[in-house]
Amino acid sequence: MRRREFISLLGAAAAAWPLAARAQQSEKIPRVGVLWRGANAEQEGSVFTSLVKGFGELGYVEGRDIKLEHRYANDLPDRFKSMAAELVASNVDLLIGVGIIAATYAKAATTAIPVVFLVVGDPVGAKLVESLSHPGGNVTGLSSFSSGMFNKRINFLKELIPALARVGLLINSNDPVPHVFADPSQAAQELGLTIQTFEWKTTNELGPAFDRMKRANMQVFTTNPDGLAFAQRSLIAKISAARALPFSSWAKDTLKQGAIMSYTADADAICQRAGVLVDKILKGAKPGELPVEEPSKFQLFLNPKMAKAIGLTIPESAVAAADGVVE
């Protein structure tokens, strides 16, 4: 080969190297592991579709720009632990934990991979972050509860039921941080009510818990949005309707199954917003330096038809003030 031809060939190869490197680099798609509370996407409902929608609104196309690897723990501790470990071992670029239990296992599984939590009431109290403004470490996320939300929900109930005096609090006894969502003694004192706790930890114990609430003459009940209560929210709503015991929920989708009222932060908006936080981290931001985002939008939904079916009449003024009606 003559010298001129060799130099030309070498120059062409050198020019091709950066192109090849860029092509190879562009083929690497960020992989985001998502650890869910429920048993499947259908059970997760609108929060699942909202999370996926959030990435789409940022221009991410599944399979082309990002790969979401979903895992469904069905609120089983062993599955949370094994699935978090599996995602970390597969070297995902980021790990999302939906709910306090999923987030706790996600954090425990890695100190190197960024972790973003969603729908967590008190991330500081749950020891996920050092503070809301300066999370520290490899974890940040979006909180979904405010300290006054429980009292606000009970206040709405008092507007719906003027003679309200006794409220049941259905608590999963396996919930690691029940105080995050409600302090019955404080609420009882502030609102002048009797608020009594009724525990359960398996679906077989739900029926007896409802029996105890009925015997104690509870006029209405609410529950914490922990993992198991979330997974069984439809069942709880259906039992409440069958037992004619009004249910004040934190999930709008329970109104179609039997709840009469829901008041909570907009979980769909929170999950949709997750894409923004993940996008920042994938582009180089450090999770420990990204402040935890708190909810700014809360929603009140009512089901007057269900209330009437179990012997209650929701005032028209309350219906007019609600964000929406579900029947």
Report what the structure shows.
- The chain has 327 residues and is α/β, with parallel strands linked by helices.
- It folds into 2 domains: 30-145 and 266-298, Rossmann fold, CATH 3.40.50.2300; 149-265 and 299-325, Rossmann fold (3-Layer(aba) Sandwich).
- It has 13 helices and 12 strands.
- The protein has helices at 3-26, 41-44, 46-57, 77-89, 100-109, 149-160, 184-191, 206-215, 227-231, 233-242, 267-282, 304-309, 316-321, and strands at residues 31-36, 67-72, 94-98, 115-120, 139-143, 166-172, 194-200, 220-223, 247-249, 261-265, 298-302, 324-325.
- Strands 7-6-8-9-10-11-12 form a 7-stranded mixed sheet, sandwiched between helices. A 5-stranded parallel sheet has the order 2-1-3-4-5, with helices on both faces.
- Strand 3 (94-98), helix 5 (100-109) and strand 4 form a beta-alpha-beta unit.
- Helix 3 runs parallel beside helix 11 (267-282).
- The protein starts with a helix and ends with a strand.
- Mean pLDDT is 87; it is low at 6-26.
Number of structural domains: 2
Structural class comes to alpha/beta
Strand order of the largest sheet: 7-6-8-9-10-11-12
Run of helices and strands: HEHHEHEHEEHEHEHEHHEEHEHHE
What is the CA-based Rg, rounded? 24 Å
Distance between the termini: 83 Å
- What does the oligomeric state look like here? single chain
Low-confidence stretches: 6-26
Any idea what the CATH architecture of the largest domain is? Answer: 3-Layer(aba) Sandwich
Briefly note the CATH topology name of the largest domain.
Answer: Rossmann fold
Largest sheet: 7 strands, mixed
Number of strand elements:
12
Shape: elongated
Helix content: 40-55%
Q: Estimate the mean pLDDT confidence.
A: 87
The percentage of residues in β strands lies in 15-25%
> Can you identify the CATH superfamily of the largest domain?
Response regulator
Counted by DSSP, the helix tally is 13
CATH class of the largest domain: Alpha Beta
